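Thread: flavin-adenine dinucleotide complex, take 2
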Amino acid sequence: MAHIAELPNVLNDSDPMIPRLMRVVKNRPETSNTFTLTLEDPDRIPFKFEPGQFNMVGIAGVGEVPVSVCGDPDSPMLVVHTIRAVGAITDALRRVVPGQFVMVRGPYGHGWPLREAEGHDVVIVCGGIGLAPMRPAVYRLLQARDRYGKCAMLYGTRTEKDILFKREFMRWRTRKDFRFELTLDRGRGVWRGNVGVVTDLISRLDVDAPNTIAMVCGYEMMMRFIVSSLIAQKLDPSRIFISMERNMKCGVGLCGHCQLRGTFVCRSGPVYRYSDIASLLPVREL
Amino acid sequence: MSALSTDLVKVLQRSELGWLLAILRDRGYTVVGPTIRDAAIVLDEIASVEDLPIGMTAEEGPGGYRLLPRSDDAVFGFGVGPSTAKRWLLPTSRILWRTRLIDGTLTVLPEVAEAKPVALFGIRACDLQAVDILDRVCAGGCYADSHYVAVRERLFTVAVDCADPPSTCFCTSMGGSPAAESGFDIRLTEIAGPPHRFLVDPGSEAGSAIVDALQAALASEEDLAARASQAGQASQRITKRLDCRGLREILERNAENRTWDEAATRCFACGSCTMVCPTCFCSTTKMSSSMLTGESECERQWDSCFSEQFSFIHGGSVRESTMSRYRQWVTHKLAAWHEQFGVSGCVGCGRCIAWCPAGIDITEVASTIRRSDVAAKRPTVGKEH
Ligand SMILES: Cc1cc2nc3c(=O)[nH]c(=O)nc-3n(C[C@H](O)[C@H](O)[C@H](O)COP(=O)(O)OP(=O)(O)OC[C@H]3O[C@@H](n4cnc5c(N)ncnc54)[C@H](O)[C@@H]3O)c2cc1C
Ligand code: SF4
Ligand code: SF4
Ligand code: FES
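Output below.
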């Protein structure tokens, strides 16, 4: 039992597979298929997390899925998740109403390198639902704004109808110390903003490469393009961070589903230093 | 070398073997050992020595396993069968929790499955090594599987030296040997004799207590010499090899090697190899609920990286092709495991070779990849690490 002896004392009452029940406070639609759940612990136990970490969120009898924590890390009494309904479990989550309970395990995984980024410029690039894991990082950056250099956020989504967190954007836009750019794949009618893919915005940024940390989140294919553009801007691969998605059943390194070669995405990730996995990403079906 | 000194080694005559089993049962252990079910030697609960496959053996080869009578009445004259210790440590399915409405309030009740003390009677050295690996997997990280820990803490092991390893074995390539050297509570060595006898060697405090209770005679110099020479002969009988030198790096850089495609044309993605593997640990969770009561439960079940759903994320499976799933299995076992748990995930028991319906041999696949190593052809070998 050599390995067991070295363990922190893990007992049944802290069994990582046992979920907590959290009460739904609000379920607000963001777009036609995306919604934001606000949850609270019925016993008012604060929920502490690091931006970029995720929870396993589930409904009894249906199933549970990994979802990034999307709220403000400085408001630990509320647990916020923004979720796109794409299948059985996320659809069931979309239908929950205030007062109902959902199951939560977490927070798990490693988040964004906000410590490491202190004293540096920060570029955040994300697409679609990839904004969800980014929002807590933005809250943190803005809350401790003087610890960072120039901060820019580039966000791309499909159409105007798919824009998440519009009201927040208004606020971010008015800040002089935060550059926020939005682009749409397709802009129609009254849309006056950027049209095109998010990588176009990167080439227009004036990046002080040796002094910049980039954080990237979106679909794997999109992230590859984003990373290439950042590297084209002379960013070192060790200064780029990306958040990976894999099937997850446990979230704690026990079920094997999330393996990415020698790492478990739930444990080493979901946020990785790009240079650590750069050689793995081009391999198909790894 | 056993953990304690050799002057504690005792000897039991064949007719006395039942004493050991009786003492274990007497101390409250559920005794699990090899026994014949459905034309194979599996591990299951045994009540007495008569339940063991006395005088039987199993012929094992790629894609083949066949029970045969032996010419003698050896008690442990066979290799490993399809079942492994993981069935007790990581049950094929287990309820994790249930919900109940208590006074109108939804409550999650953890299902604390009873962890009966189990004695594995006749476990082989490779399977002991596999349990050591499972300790790292299930209890060595920041989160432990609480059920595993509970069963493991109560587990008692009676190891048996392999005298007659089948052709699928390659434990000697994986840092092991047919004779149990460590990690057991008691080590047994069957000596055909005459007289037909067993050397009993304690490897832990708990093992010593049981051996003392046996009140058996001390083993003689001759007994110990017979044990040593038998161990040497058994090792020599093993001819299958897995060359592990640099294997991790070779596999890591050969994800695009054509050998994977060739193996995949034969592989059915049936997952049999992962089920019989003593270290494959993957699981899934299934939730279900009763329409009648509204109560629900969550069940954890064995899973396999050979299934299509295993790697499913919205939009499709990450590992769609059989090639990628076969590659995942081998690469995880022989390479990624080192990074995750500090050891190889393979103990050389050879089960995946015998129980593969296509007769695919992991040692052959690994050596084909070694021979066609992409980097070996370039003069820059080793530069990338
Ligand atoms: C770290 C991480 C963070 C994420 N963050 C977010 C986020 O913030 N917002 C967001 O919208 N998405 C996020 N995702 C993606 C999200 O997890 C998937 O969209 C979600 O898993 C889809 O589940 P589904 O059942 O609705 O879809 P499906 O496509 O139907 O199923 C997806 C997975 O759920 C399993 N599953 C389906 N039904 C069951 C069942 N009955 N029992 C057990 N398993 C079942 C499937 O096997 C499959 O593995 C994140 C993913 C990861 C890995
Ligand atoms: S080889 Fe496959 S089933 Fe076995 S532990 Fe690895 S991922 Fe899981
Ligand atoms: S290697 Fe053999 S046992 Fe494993 S999945 Fe393929 S056919 Fe089945
Ligand atoms: S989700 Fe289970 S190991 Fe990562």
